[in-house]
Batch of 2 targets.
Target 1
Amino acid sequence: MAKSSKKQIYEDELKVIAELQKNAKENIDVIVKNCGFSRQKVWRIIKGLEEDKTIWGYAAIVNEEKQGLKSYMILIKRTTLPIDEKLADKIITRQLENLASEIDIKIEHSMLTHGTFDWVICFRAKDMIHAKKFSEIVNRTYWGYIGEVHMLEVLFPIRKQGILNPDIQKLKEFL
């Protein structure tokens, strides 16, 4: 098989992605060594993945507790009311994110889902009071389109973005 076949390119990209997911801040020379590729090839693969938006960005995985924050999730079930263009634009322009930042809420994930719930929002807040305020903002912003909302507080993050919590032994306190 030719070294530049689509299948081989895809497999090479997967190797680089796997290394970046372990530690995106890793020195490129370590990534090169772990993948067995040249420095130029790894750099070219990363740039290509960024350009075609396979890689959206890079983020630090943070211990919220050390920042005085807690993690929460809102699980949303939609009504049967069809979403109009105005509401779609509200979602796409990230209006909710702007409203959240006004009360010191940081949205980490916002995902359209298929199953019992239609939308999941993961976010950080100072406490349950702020989290409930955010939940109320979500309800007001999408009034008529939301049938059911459930909020969960994350007690202990075992794994985030594929990275195991370095304080995993503390999990015993919650079990």
Target 2
Amino acid sequence: MGDRTKIMDLTHITGNCIIGEDVFVSTGVFTANDNRIGTTGYHEEDIQGPTIEDGAMIGAGAVLLPGVRIGRGAIVGAGSVVTRDVAPATTVMGTPARIRARSVVA
């Protein structure tokens, strides 16, 4: 976890998750690291949590699935389910999360 990063109450940060600097993770956010939900046993090399790059913001109640990358300066709206990578400086919302806006500044 990087410097100046804030993770709020009732949030679950799973193993093998990478979080950059200046990140904000709101309350009730969940991350996952195993797409096979344990059916093939536990093998450390197969377990990959989300990567949240510098300056990203994750809204309350969002779910980040295994291996997704939240790009630098991206915003994930409250209650979103992130099933795919989010490009830098992009805002996504919904279930599944879809692009709502792009910023020219990242």
